Amino acid sequence: MKTIERTALSELISNENYARKVLPHMKVDYFSDRSERIVFEEIQKFVDKYNTLPNKTSIEIEIDTRRDLNEQDVKAVIDVVKSLEKDDDANLEWLVETTEKFCKDKAVYNAIVEGIQIIDGKDKNRNVDAIPSILTDALAVGFDNSVGHDYLLDAESRFEYYHTIEEKIPFDLDFFNRITKGGLPPKTLNIALAGTGVGKSLFMCHMAANCMNQGRNVLYISMEMAEERIAERIDANLMNISMEDLHSLPKQMYDDKINKIIKNTTGQLVIKEYPTASAHSGHFRGLIKELAVKKSFKPDIIFIDYLNICASSRFKGAANVNSYMYIKSIAEELRGLAVETNVPIMSATQTTRSGYSNTDVGLEDTSESFGLPATADLMFALISSEELEERNQIAVKQLKNRYNDPTMNKRFVIGIDRAKMRLHDLDASEQEGLVDSNQKEDTFNEPVFDNTDFGEGWQV
Predict the structure, then answer these.
(1) Staple partner for 227: which of 52, 264, 273, 407, CB 3.0–4.6 Å?
(2) What is the secondary structure of 430-448 as a DSSP string?
(3) How far is residue 210's CA from residue 199's CA, in Å, rounded to a whole number?
(4) 438-452 residues labelled b (16+ CB within 10 A) or e (exposed)
């Protein structure tokens, strides 16, 4: 009786189209019979070395020269080789689909066996925390034959891509939508640069509340403040009451406001706190998988407050690593996580000591590592001054922008209500204290920027 294992081995030595499609995805441990496993090993080694399919004779010779097989093993393996016969009537598409299903089933079966061994304590290198990752990897097994974009052959699909509207998460702030062409796209890392106390966490809490109001699932990871402190800020934002009034709110009124939020949005918000400098992208990846399993929660956007106090999964302890490499590594890992999860990640970073007092912040004011702006897709500075504070405003300056021309709307101001943890758009007239020679004429009736200073030290 023919099995899928024997059929696959037969096609691997006789059907090049089949072999090219399935061989990169097949593994030795998918074959439970030892003799079949040895035959597959020899086929794989031959193809890797000579880049062509072996025949029965070459496999038999290779097996006969192996020193790790006794006479009985050699005979059993040779019998398997002799039994391999190509089926000329088999449909290639059916063969590939059947083999893919076989590989998926075997991967899941092997993962379950590994999980049982871990639970029984037979695996000394892993604990039960590794089981969700093992099962996830097994469930992800599949044949993906894409090896890159062929410029000429894929021209049609490229044209369709040009005319596909990209899914973005919009801001509720007009200028941010202008500079990003409608919001944050998936697979991106976006960074707010600001000094201590300027409003990095306020910006992210406001944006998290806005995303939740849109019906998005939001994951907010805090490395700095307690989960309750973040939730407190988002409460003030969504309930439109000051932080001070929030603490004196009667229970019935608080419940009514929570019920109103539940009624008005389908979005979910999960806040997770980690100790400072203790968690890295691997922990965040594990959290996302755990939320998917335990709460059926898949984030649409992730906030990490903030990047510099994360750890790196590549540099343990960072004892012998300079800050440039360490922060750059964290940024690259977080951007990789954004690509892997297909969501935008929003985070923040501190300015240098000189940047803290500078009202015209630049990329050079990024603390610790210039590798961070090199990795980010969008980077902007949040700038405050005494005069801006008096006006309840905060200035924004684009530093890097892969979504749009960063010289357009390079600087602008937005309103800030620190008591309610809210940001808001300002009238066009409020923008007249800034300079930007590339501002579009039709954006406002008058030029947005001029040479007026924003308080002492503000030069644009």
Answers:
(1) 273
(2) GGGG---TT--TTTSSS-S
(3) 16
(4) ebeeebeeebbbeee
Question: How many Cβ atoms are within 10 Å of 153's Cβ, its own excluded?
Answer: 8
Q: What pLDDT tens digit does each residue of the chain (460 aa) get?
A: 678 899 999 999 988 888 888 888 889 999 989 999 999 999 999 999 998 999 999 999 999 888 888 889 899 999 999 998 887 778 888 888 899 999 999 999 999 998 998 898 888 888 887 888 788 788 777 776 566 788 888 888 888 888 877 789 999 999 999 999 999 999 999 999 988 888 889 999 999 999 999 999 999 999 888 899 999 999 999 999 998 899 888 999 999 999 999 998 888 999 999 998 888 988 999 999 999 988 999 999 999 988 888 988 877 765 577 777 888 889 999 999 999 999 999 999 888 765 555 566 767 667 666 778 888 999 999 988 888 888 899 989 999 999 998 888 888 999 999 999 999 998 887 777 665 535 554 443 443 334 444 444 444 3
DSSP structural state of residue 166:
P
* Residue 345: strand, helix, or coil: strand
| 455 in Cβ contact with 387 (< 8 Å) | yes
Burial of 292-302, coded b for 16+ CB within 10 Å and e otherwise, reads eeeeebebbbb
What does each C-alpha distance from 450 to 185, 232, 436 come to in angstroms?
32, 39, 7
Closest-CA residue to 58 (of 111, 108, 116, 14): 14
DSSP strands (E only) in 274-429: 301-305, 345-350, 378-383, 393-401, 411-417, 422-424
**Amino acid at the residue 409:** N
Amino acid at 255: D
Neighbours of 162 (CB within 10 A): 6
CA distance 61 to 74: 11
Helical spans, DSSP H, in 28-130:
34-50, 56-64, 71-83, 92-119
Classify each residue of 230-242 as buried b or exposed e, where b means 16 or more C-beta atoms within 10 Å of its C-beta.
Answer: bbbbbbbbbbebe
Q: How many CB atoms lie within 10 A of CB 137?
A: 11
Give yes or no for a contact between 63 and 40, defined as CB atoms under 8 angstroms apart.
no
In 3-state terms the chain splits into helix, strand, coil percentages (rounded to 5) of 50, 10, 40
Other Cβ atoms within 10 Å of 173 Cβ, number: 21
| Closest C-alpha to 334, from 348, 350, 345 | 345
